[in-house]
Amino acid sequence: MPRGRYSLHDPHDHTPFAEEHFHCAPGPSGWRYVSQLTTPAGDHSGSVDLALDELGRPVRLELHAGGWQVRGAALEGVTWVRTDPTGAHATEGNVRAHAFTGTSPAFLIATTRLLRLTPSASAIRVRLVAFTDPVLAPRTVDQSWALVNRETHATDNAPLTVDEYQVTALDTGEQHAVHIAGDVVLAAPGIELEDLDSPPSTFA
Hints:
Blueprint: E1 3-9, E2 16-27, E3 30-38, E4 44-53, E5 58-65, E6 68-74, E7 78-83, E8 90-95, E9 99-101, H1 105-115, E10 124-132, E11 137-153, E12 160-169, E13 175-181, E14 184-188, E15 191-196
Parallel strand pairs: 9-10
Antiparallel strand pairs: 1-2, 1-15, 2-3, 3-4, 4-5, 5-6, 6-7, 7-8, 10-11, 11-12, 12-13, 13-14, 14-15
């Protein structure tokens, strides 16, 4: 069960905005990721709890940020309920999309589990509902994902396979690289892996 810490920053000017302390693990029915977020000053700022089924679909999502809360799952596309900080108002949303995304590295792992790309495959288009900080506002985004490189590196424990994905935002054409080993993001825009207590899990 990998445990560790990511630092999250603005991908453009590198302003730090959070640290994400996480643990994650595959199980008999899929994969689960749980994390707590803190501000650069060390104050609690939110949490992520994401569970996937064996096909990579989100069976449960719970996000907290800035007093806001989102609960969602894959249901007739994806469905969610967003609750304001007072708890007095809740709005429900539903979009014909494949999964969710957001600033947490968990969503990058989740997208790769859903797409199951191979190095020889062509890019795949995916529609996602993104919950944007700081108020978890939902926004539908279309992306293209391609697995462009797979390398195996020798380590003290066991060989480590690193996948490099090219992700394209289809509304702007902007492209960026995401490097993933098992269920851990090694590098991506706005994300740095700072600590890892145990090796990444491998998926069958």
